[in-house]
Amino acid sequence: MSANKNPAPGTPQSLSGLLPFVQPYRLQVFLASVFLLLAAGATLLFPWALRELIDQGLMHADQRSQLAYHFVQLFGVAVALAVFSAMRFYMVSMLGERVTADIRNAVYSHVLEQSPSFFETTQTGEVLSRLSSDTTLVQTVVGSSLSMGLRNLVMGVGALLMLVWTNPLLMLQVIAVLILIVFPSVKLGRRVRRLSRASQDRVADASAIAAEVLNAIPVVQSYNAQKKEALRFIDATKQAVNTALRRTRARSVLVGFIIMASSAALLWGLYQGTLSVQEGNTSAGQLGQTVVYVILLASAFAVLGEVYGDLLRAAGATERLMELLHSKSDVQDPLHPVDITAPTQGSTLQLKDVEFRYPSRPDTPAIHALTATIYAGQTVAVVGPSGAGKTTLFALLLRFHDPQSGRIVLNDHAIDTLGLHDLRQQIGLVPQDAVIFSGTAMDNIRYGLPDASNDQVKAAAIAAFADEFITALPQGYDTFLGERGVRLSGGQRQRISIARAILKNPPLLLLDEATSALDAHSEGMVQAALETAMKDRTTLVIAHRLATVQKADVIWVMDHGQLIEQGTHNQLLAQGGLYASLAALQFGAHESSSP
């Protein structure tokens, strides 16, 4: 069997994936271990101090100084236990917080580097769930359960050794009782864990329904579906409550059994010890010491059973997190990226027999045999019916995907030889659906150039005709725009998106229906802003609006991933092909007959 074989799913060995995150905190781990051993030692010392009090202090009660000494001794043990336990709790809690934060940061940063194909097979909600609930489980183990388990293991072993040393016959009887406790407890514990997971799933179902509905509240209200959705949520909540009650019943049975069985073990030990005292074989102090050690041993085994269940849950959570962390994007930086300098007069772009199929649709080419050249400073309009491959072309230029064959060359360098950061730094994208982040207007525009000054941000806003409505907001550029920019109209969101691209000032602009959300008045202003932004740079425009298409140097007509026509507006109308048909439908029949 291979020594590096992966651990079985859901076993504590899966927690080994946490080791790289724990190693930077070796000092904290060492200190936590020291305080853990000291706290366990103080706990085991307590029964010995109690025996000394009973045998030496109470038996000589007439000597008050002797009695006081033993009480002070017992209190000293309690103080040591309190201090060591507090330090252990602080160290392991700090360790849990830091390790969990590092894991969450590492997973999130790694997911941000994944290509769009990753999100075709992985739901965003699942990633968020792993970042929240799974890391919480890991934090519980690293910051609490693991330490508690080790402490109880040390105490249990120590209590067992002390019982062997003080009363080996009684120890054998206690072990027999503990075996009767452990196996039913483990079985009941498994049932509780299964019901706990089911309960969490039902709560997650209810939360998913709430999130879905709240994100679509205008549609829900427009169809008067509030009552229907409320009933759906109530039903999901009812299922969650029923499952939680089943879990609670099972947990109650488990707790009751452990208390009853532990009490039986304690009383049996007390009974045997009492008989031994009556026979004169054992002192009262030794009896008290034995009883406390039996309690420590029984409670340690009970806690270890619960901790083991937490370890199993955390092992599964760790596996899911490591699965995200070890996923590899299908788009990678080259081993030795080419150093490039951004041109000042726009970029030259060449596509050479490019072929691309989405992984989810391997039999249907999204881009097929695409060969074309765009010269520096040119404006190329890309038109075609829905599904023609226009947006896919932009995704390939940004290296969100790599073509299965062919080459894309930017300024005499194949884009797969450039670092992803360097490539995308030379490209400005204005998507059809403007993305507004939760922040201020200033923050959203500065997203295009994080080091930009306030004056540069305002200049970009003015160029995008966004300054007027931004200054009219309650706090101007410092106005919080709300989640997804809900406080703005569609046209306002688009103008902020355009300002963001203008601020970045790249040599290559990709405009994906950049004016689709604007009214006629706003479109005229933004078209003027775009013409300024497009000056001295290369621009690709996905558009159906006549104003943009007519002013392009070249128009590409795509259909089913192929470039089937190219030329100026008038040339393509004269050809009477697909573009002429689109012009007749989209721009009016009178345009299709223009010279």
Overall structural class, as computed from helix and strand content, comes to: alpha/beta
User: Helical residue percent?
Assistant: 55-70%
CATH top level of the largest domain? Alpha Beta
Instruction: Indicate the mean pLDDT.
Output: 77
* Number of helical segments with 4 or more residues: 20
Largest sheet: 6 strands, mixed
Hey, roughly how much beta strand do the residues contain? 5-15%
Number of strands: 10
* CA-CA gap between termini: 78 Å
Low-confidence stretches: 1-5, 589-595
Q: Given the C-alpha coordinates, what overall shape results? A: elongated
CATH topology of the largest domain: Rossmann fold
Across the major sheet, the strand order is 6-7-8-3-9-10
- What is the name of the CATH architecture of the largest domain? 3-Layer(aba) Sandwich
Q: From the alpha-carbon coordinates, what is the Rg to the nearest angstrom?
A: 35 Å
- CATH homolog superfamily of the largest domain: P-loop containing nucleotide triphosphate hydrolases
The helix/strand series, from N terminus to C terminus, equals HHHHHHHHHEEEHEEHEHHHHEHEHEEHHH
Work out the count of structural domains. Answer: 3
Provide a compact summary of the structure:
The chain is α/β, with parallel strands linked by helices and 595 residues long. The chain has helices at 19-22, 26-58, 64-112, 116-121, 124-166, 168-214, 217-222, 226-278, 284-325, 390-397, 420-425, 441-446, 454-463, 467-471, 490-504, 520-534, 546-551, 569-575, 578-586, 589-592, and strands at residues 349-357, 365-374, 379-383, 405-410, 413-414, 427-430, 508-512, 538-542, 554-559, 562-567.
